[in-house]
Design brief:
It contains twelve helices and nine strands. Strands 1, 2, 3, 4, 5, 6, 7, 8 and 9 form a nine-stranded mixed beta sheet that branches. By secondary structure, it is α/β, with parallel strands linked by helices. It is globular. Helix 7 packs parallel to helix 8. About 0% of the residues have low confidence.
Length: about 300
């Protein structure tokens, strides 16, 4: 018998898009799944829409986040997981999509080893009509250990969207689930714990997932200083957790964090200079006269060969 896959979707006021997400679930060539949707307190037509989907297919169930739980997607994900029964877990946001054979291809790769993690090729909609699909990243490959996987991530975009993964229930249990207190980088923090319990990484290259990109005009992804401070705090934890696994993965993400925060909250960079010192020195070297001189000397000796 095919193992059960639990698809867990947190949602909040997404009645205008979640129908497309659920249609991608209903279109799966793999049939043994359950879809658990947890509403974070929507005030739009989410309830009425999802009632129709639950009536249409008994594999879909709809919950309201209990009032005693913290508001937020992570609390919804944990509550959904607690009510799930699947051997494998598919996280999915309410405005993302799965290709038709996503679950089928990944379940085949999972085999019987619960410590495997399965990824897939992914893409994004930059607007309703423009789709960009990535297919040539070095992370779209199989890896025998976490170091190889993270090193590949470091040079190819740095991450997979959460719905690109398929993971075992055992790995989620060991990781401790989602941190419900976080306000930014929930996916990154969660996956940094998942990685520690995975032995092999496989990529389903014959399938893909897609997400919608926010086309905001902001020059920073952090809309408040509180979120920027939270991002630094989270990356301190991730850095300690993964630095022995892949220094390049940690450093590349610290560079991106430094760049994003310095745009809007430069004071935070200097307040946390001890954490960013390696990035600061790297940036200084890249623009220094010493680097230019070294490049000229190298060119001189190469020309003499």
């Amino acid at each position: 018998m095919q193992p059960l896959v639990s698809i867990i979707i947190p949602t909040f006021n997404r009645a205008h898009v979640i129908g497309e997400t659920l249609n991608s679930v209903l279109s799966q060539t793999y049939s043994n799944w359950e879809c658990i949707i947890v509403d974070d307190g929507s005030t739009d037509e989410t309830f009425n829409l999802l009632a129709k989907y639950c009536e249409k297919d008994s594999r879909i169930s709809y919950y309201l986040r209990p009032v005693k739980r913290l508001k937020g997607a992570n609390a919804c994900r944990n509550f959904g997981f607690e009510n799930s029964k699947g051997k494998y877990i598919q996280w999915l946001d309410s405005d993302d999509f799965l290709s038709e054979n996503k679950l089928e291809e990944q379940v085949l790769l999972m085999k019987e080893d619960s410590s495997n993690l399965i990824t897939s090729i992914w893409g994004r909609f930059t607007n309703p009509n423009k789709l960009i699909t990535y297919s040539n990243y070095s992370s779209f490959n199989d890896f025998d250990n976490i170091r190889g996987f993270l090193n590949a991530l470091a040079i190819s975009k740095g991450y997979f969207p959460i719905h690109a993964y398929l993971m075992s229930r055992d790995v989620v249990m060991k990781s401790g689930g989602w941190d419900e207190s976080l306000i930014v980088n929930q996916d990154g923090e969660f996956m940094s714990r998942i990685f520690k319990y995975v032995n092999k990484f496989y990529c389903a290259i014959n399938t893909s997932v897609f997400y919608k990109q926010n086309d905001g005009n902001s020059t920073s992804i952090y809309s408040s200083i509180e979120k920027a401070e939270a991002a630094i705090k989270i990356w301190r934890k991730i850095s300690k957790r993964l630095k022995n696994e892949s220094k390049s993965y940690v450093f590349n993400n610290k560079k991106l964090l430094y760049k994003n925060i310095k745009i809007t909250y430069p004071g935070l960079v200097y307040k946390n200079l001890y954490f960013f010192v390696d990035v600061f020195l790297y940036n200084w070297y890249q623009t220094s006269l010493i680097r230019r001189l070294i490049i000229k000397i190298n060119k001189f000796f190469i020309s003499k060969k």
